[in-house]
Amino acid sequence: MSAHTTDNGYKEMARLAIEKHGTSPDALIPILLEVNQEYGYIPVKALTEIKKHLNAPVGDRLIQEGHLFSLASFYHMLSLKARGRHIVLFCESAPCHVTGGRAVWQALQEQLSLSAGETSPDGKWSLVTTSCLGACGVGPVVVIDEDMYGNVTPERLPEILSRYE
Amino acid sequence: MMEVKVINKRALVLVSDDSESRRLGSQELLQALRTEIDRCGLANEVDLNTIVDVGAKNLLPLVIIYPEAVVYGPVHPADAGRIVKEHLSQGRVIEEMIVPKHQLTGRIAWLAARSGALPAAQRIVLERAGRIDPESIEDYIIYDGYQALTKALTQMTPAQVIEELTISGLQGRGGAGFPTGKKWEIVASTSGSKKYVICNADESEPGTYKDRVILESDPHSIVEAMALAAYAIGADEGFIYIRGEYQLAQQRFQKAIEQAQALGLLGEHILGTDFSFHLHIHSGAGAYVCGEETALIESIEGKRGEPRSRPPYPTTHGLWGCPTLVNNVETLANVPPILRRSGEWYKKFGTPSSPGTKVYTIFGNVNLTGVFEVPMGITLREAISIYAKGMKNGAAFKLAQTGGSSGSLIPASLQDTPLDFAATRKAGVSLGSGALLIADENTCVVDLVKVLLNFFRFESCGKCTPCRIGTQRSYEILTRITQGQAELDALDELLKLADQMVRLSNCGLGQTAAVPIRDMLKHFRTEVEAHIQLGVCPTGVCPMRVEAPAAEEMQPLASA
Amino acid sequence: MITLKIDGKTVEVPENTTVLRAAEAAGITIPTLCDHPDLTPYGGCRLCVVEVKGYRLPMASCALPVSQDMEVITENPALAEARRGILELLLSDYYDQGYEDGLGGSNELLHWAEHYHIDLEQAMAKQPRYRVDSDPNPFVWVDMNKCILCTRCIRACADVQGRFVWSLAARGAHTQVVAGAGTTMLDARCESCGACVAYCPTGALNNKMSLHLGAADRKVTTTCTYCGVGCQLELNVKDDKVIRVTSNSDAAVNGMRLCVKGRYGYDFIHHPDRLTQPQVRKYLLDGTPRPPGRGEWVTVDWDTALDLTAAKLSACRDIYGSNSLGILCSAKCLNEENYLFNKFARQVIGTNNIDHCARL
Amino acid sequence: MLIIGSNTTEQHPVFGTMIRQAVMHRGVKLVVADPRKIDITEFATLHLQLRPGTDIPLVNGLMNIILEKGWEDRDFILNRTEGFDEVRQTLEHYTPEHVAQLTGIPLEKLYEAAEILATNKPMAVMWAMGITQHIVGVNNVMDLANLQMMLGNLGVPGGGVNPLRGQNNVQGACDMGGLPNVYSGYQNVTLDASREKFEAAWGAQLSQTVGMTVTEMIPGIEEDKIHALYVLGEDPIVSDPNSSHIRKCMEECDLVILQEIFPSETSPYADILLPGASFAEKSGTFTNTERRVQMVHQAISPPGEARPDWWIIAEIARRVLAQGARQVQPAPYSGWEYENTSQIMDEVAALTPSYAGVSHARLERDPAGLHWPVKDAEHPGTPILHVGQFTRGKGHFMPVEHVPPAELPDEAYPMLLNTGRVLYHWHGGEMTRRSAGLLEIYSHAKIEINPEDARMLGLNGKRRVRVSSRRGSIEAHAWITDRVPTGMIFSNFHFPESSANELTIAALDPVAKIPEYKICAVRVEALD
Predict the structure, then answer these.
(1) What is the tens place of the pLDDT at every residue in C87-124?
(2) Are C169 and A61 an interchain contact pair (Cβ–Cβ within 8 Å)?
(3) Does B287 sit within 8 Å of C178, measured CB to CB?
(4) May I ask the CATH class of domain B11-112?
């Protein structure tokens, strides 16, 4: 999350993403992923900047912010809301659920005082549910930023959460 | 994180125990076997269980031993010592006791078709997994890599490539089991100056991660397979749509593409021939529905992953409207071995109706979780006993769900159904992606199905009415049942919703979202009714009271 | 051409026709909500399902291309049950606050619900999910509680207007139609052409100016008064007032298309500033010299005004000659009126001093 | 397709939407030549942002390139046209380099444009006031015709020179003889045969001399040539150039009769105000820009005592004829007794060859309307002109040379003013300013100024500007936008309190007498 959240920052980000992926329709989602990666979410202003580079019909449509917004809201890896410093991903799929995920989810919400999709007022945590991460062998699974924790129990949570500043 | 498990050889012994078998001494046989197993110190390696309804009376009581799938019968208590010593201890099949295959009837008739070789020797898809450096093309080449491509480009016509696949009997491993050779044939015979090959690596079925293992451990096998596919159908461009969460797989695949390009195995004039093929990675961005091939194509085209109406199918109107071949990772992984050896060779594995191997992931309330590759046609009971080393904490098996969220709920009574395309279809069970979620007696089926529907109502693309609204209404009813707020007619309503989803949805997502509901009401109706009529959750999982508002408020995204 | 059988009738249609359009050509109406002949087929609502020989499940006829020798059944008890199911599902997400909308009773969802005898009261949602009137656009009323996500508005904005204001946001049970990046319509570059309203089958998008005005007594097709394109539009009249303007697919020039002025710029007709009485300057009636600034206005009857006009014009002509008069006719008036002005200038006054604002 | 001098999506919005769809779904290649980055440019394959008033150099330059590359349609030129060699000679000075310099369009874009336009057949040219409202308006139009003849794009579907007429019935008003030089159907007043025909029909002796245009009549008041004006549904104060001069003239006019639906900026200068009917309150026909005659149907009654304009003029005509010196003889069409407009159209048809087959009854039967010429009651109409042959026989190439605009920026008035309309309003705004919703969206005049200029002018967050020309000045809100290039501002004339026509120059095209609305020199100052 290094890009500048200034008008020029968005401009530059959009320029680089377009340079890298091009302006054909199949570049749209990669561009959005790139922006999301950079900012941790997709600021609407960045959409506007991207749109400016697509100022001619792409395929059978003219790309407007609306289409980019529509994509960003469809795909779960893309967020339209600013997120906390640490993103807690909880797998809510059945494999984790039957191995004790239900209890972990309750505990996680209580300990962070957050519901799904919320970000704490101090901007430290965002709690996000996800579908299967393919680590079902060690469910229930919680991922914090880049770190994956398997076989999580409610009891282990305080220790895990305490590792993050 | 997850490694490919080295599969321990363990055995599952099933003794027929219906009334006729009992009359003929099956209980005594069981006792004798248990004694012998204990005496030989094999109690931790062998699972002993019973089976009913096995057909032919003159063979009773009979004994089935997995993984060899050998059937002995009739077996007397006196034979117990020999079976344990020779077969279970020393691994020697007792030929003279084997029931001739043509005598197998009833629910074990399928065993006649089963190949008896040991699973460990039958790795096709995961042949190199864990044995080579996935980031080294040299390793891949040393282990027979790119031989199939070389052979195809230099010695075979595209038609011959397809012919070989057709002979092999390979079926799509994405879940539907469509014959791969036939699919290639259709795309090859569709006219069009531009065609595409797409590898569907948007592996999103919960619990399924076999494709990730393949891509992470043997990426070149997919590069090679896609090039073969392109050659066969006349494409010069391909996309692999890899799930966005699979960062390592994407990195390794990217590296594989670059290495292959550097060696002239991708790009223009591959191996000096007229054949050119360009391969791109397209990252998913988090949408289960993009596993549906037309949604995946829409997604590559920079749109929301909304499945298209079919027909026309991608084979004729796919990416950018061009004929497009879409195959799953596992399917493609089978292609180079088939072409390197032969279709006939491949057909020797698995069952006649479903040749080859299948890669499964197994997890849930079992002792050992992981990935394993076995011939088509093992039973669920085998998978749990042998590969997952039994149920965790000795709890009783209650149900399995195959194939991720969209799969079937398999009750204990169907544990002995062989897992191949034909047999599962016949039993009304979907084999799906090869995920095996094993749940024990502490699992509440209503709670589980509620979780599944919660998944679907968010993963539905929202395009068609039955899926978008049907999943939501079903979820609401299930929630009411877990809260003790439902009346009995809720079950009729659930069935009606399930029927609408199955019959009227635009794509497989809406259709399969109904499967768990139907299976629940088919196999576990008593348990569901207990929630409603007695006001109790038999497993004690459901709250049986209103904890939170049943339907969440939906906030418009618009600021307005 | 492709030949197929629909409900036993042999139908011949061009390739790539959808089954729904082919049925229409054969005079068979298949219920639909998301389909419209002007728009790209979508296949979302599933109301139009039919049975097709060779297919296990019902197929959405709006998105299914015809094929040679296809056999289609468009209605039977099973299909009727399926449609009832779809309508019930849609209604379970449809909340009506109870106001009289601006469409004048052309709600297609309710039409089909009544057709299939659905108990609306029971089927409709009991709670709103969105704010009613959620967009400040002065012409388009937005009540997403009535939205059935048929996406006709989105496709109308794309396929007809080419503006791409509307799109779908989120997915699954949370799918909704939003303007731009979740902004207001105008911020999403809406041109207020009203195409989305014209295509909306439920009134989720509605004519704000026509709310509570009810159904029209009659619709009068006429030609738009603004630019030179000559769009055909329908003036919806009630109690001798224009209460709404609608468009019609049959219009040769414009079809369903209209611009903001054509569809919504009609309220000047009833503006209180309208001149309703002939007026003349008082000095003319008094026969006194013209005061500076021409003095005050007096309202008179037609005879007075016309006689005075005629007298003054003849006097001017007789005193200064025919060419001392200038006649400006109008590019806003009828051909017939312009012809009469041309005749008036040349025959009655005797001058060729006639022109209009073509140059301006 | 070439769009030049037309802000299509705002001025002819429905055509605009069709062009957008053609680009997206039919793959039409669109070249837009306009000094401003108007909305349709986002659909353009190429936008040629030419300097205002350099249309002729641009078109000549494109033709120069077309000849250089051998893209011209030699068969068409040979068989269907004449005068090509003279044009070829003229074009020689318009080298791409020279044209690039004159127009400010980069050389490579000129080549690209020429290639797109010449190699995509058929190619249509669309233009509007941006072409005609110049002192060289007629030459502009002729040059576009040259281009299309050179490419063989005339008389074919999807080709042609397609003017987009400004007002709803400009075409009809012209067709009906609302011009100083022609009777209905463009029958020339100076041609004896025409005049005699109408004299016989109307039973009166008719003037042989061409009359005055609107742009001559009003200044004619000052020169004592005009003493009375009878104005139907027009607001010269707002819509004519150089408003302050117009006011002065109107002030002096002895008699002004105004027939209108609203009090206007002109009504203070009127002596008699006659309330007319709006389009919803009368029946008859309009003729659109495609020459398509379509029905207008009465939907409601006129308010109060208001009456349809045809009724009013007929009443006046009868009364004028009843008194005074001028006499009319009995003749087939000398009378003014009309019960409805259908009877009037029958008279038009009888006297106007191009409308001969038009009748209300026929239009009611075929709501798609009729494209004139409609030669008789059976003739189907003529959607495409010049198929196979031009009206005059062979198409004539007219060599056209560049003439700079009448007034260009100088030290005192350093910026260039371009004028036009916006989507939400119409002409003088008489109707649209009385539509609550339209006014809500676009409530006051906005002057478009380039951000760079805004910075130079020290606008710096300030909202309002004063714009002055040699003829007047207005104050309005500034809209800082890169729609306009530096050195140019754009203003509309929908709002009388800040109408661009206070500033515009009444320099006229010598032939068409159209004022040069599109270009004049102004000075811009930031306010408060």
Answers:
(1) 999 999 999 998 888 887 789 999 999 999 999 999 99
(2) no
(3) no
(4) alpha beta
Which of B43, B21, B25 shows the shortest CA–CA distance to B34?
A: B43
Query: pLDDT tens digit string along D347-384?
Result: 999 999 999 999 999 999 988 899 989 999 898 888 87
What average pLDDT score do residues B91-105 get? 84
Average pLDDT over residues D244-264: 92
Give yes or no: residues D344 and D362 share one domain.
Answer: yes
**Pairing relation of β-strands C232-238 and C218-223?**
antiparallel
For residue D149, give both structure tokens: 């003849």
pLDDT per position as a tens digit, B288-308 = 999 999 999 999 999 999 999
**Rounded CA Rg of chain A:** 18
**Is residue C173 within 8 angstroms of chain A, CB to CB?**
no
Q: How far is CA B546 from CA B484, C148, C214, D517, in A?
A: 8, 29, 43, 73
Residue for token pair 């607001």: D235
Regions in chain A scoring below 50 on pLDDT? 1-2
Terminal-to-terminal C-alpha distance of chain B? 45
Q: Does D239 touch chain C (CB under 8 A)?
A: yes
- Angle CA D75–D78–D80, to nearest 5: 90
* Inter-chain CB proximity A95 and B437 less than 8 Å: yes
Cis preceding linkage at D268, omega within 30: no
Q: What is the DSSP string of B314-338?
A: TTTS-GGGS-EEEEEHHHHHTHHHH
- Provide the number of structural domains found in chain C: 4
Q: What is the ipTM of this complex?
A: 0.91
pLDDT tens-digit series, residues C14-26: 999 999 999 999 9
Q: Are D407 and D505 in contact (CB under 8 A)?
A: yes
DSSP C276-310: -S-EEEHHHHHTPPPPGGG--EEE--HHHHHHHHH
Rounded-to-integer distance, Cα B271 and Cα B274, Å: 9
Q: Does A64 contact D at CB distance below 8 Å?
A: no
Residues of C in contact with A59 (CB under 8 A): none
Nearest-CA distance A10 → chain B (Å): 21
pLDDT in tens, B31-90: 999 999 888 888 878 888 888 777 777 888 989 888 778 889 899 999 999 999 988 888
Q: Is the CB of residue B29 less than 8 Å from the CB of residue B76? A: yes
- Provide the whole-model pTM: 0.92
Nearest Cα neighbor of B416 from B111, B171, B119 is B111
Residue D335 in domain: yes
DSSP-based three-state secondary structure for B363: strand
The whole-number pLDDT of residue C100 equals 86
Neighbouring chains to A with at least 3 Cβ pairs closer than 8 Å = B, C, D
Level-2 CATH architecture, domain B445-553: Up-down Bundle (1.20)
CATH assignment at residue D437 = 2.40.40.20
Query: Would you say D351 and D334 are in contact if contact means Cβ atoms under 8 Å apart?
Result: no
Other C-beta atoms lying within 10 Å of the C-beta of residue C288:
11
Quick check: is D485 in a domain? yes
In the CATH scheme, what architecture does the domain B137-345 have?
3-Layer(aba) Sandwich (3.40)
The tokens for C243 are 């209460």
- C274 closest CA partner among C236, C241, C304: C241
Peptide bond into B61 cis (omega under 30): yes
Cβ–Cβ gap A62/D25 under 8 Å: no
Say yes or no for a CB contact (<8 Å) between A132 and B404: yes
CATH number at residue C57: 3.10.20.740
Residue numbers in B near C90 (CB within 8 A): 465, 469
Q: How many residues does chain C have?
A: 360
Question: What's the mean pLDDT when you consider all of chain D?
Answer: 91
Identify whether D405 is part of a domain.
Answer: no
Q: Where along chain B do its domains lie?
A: 11-112, 137-345, 355-440, 445-553
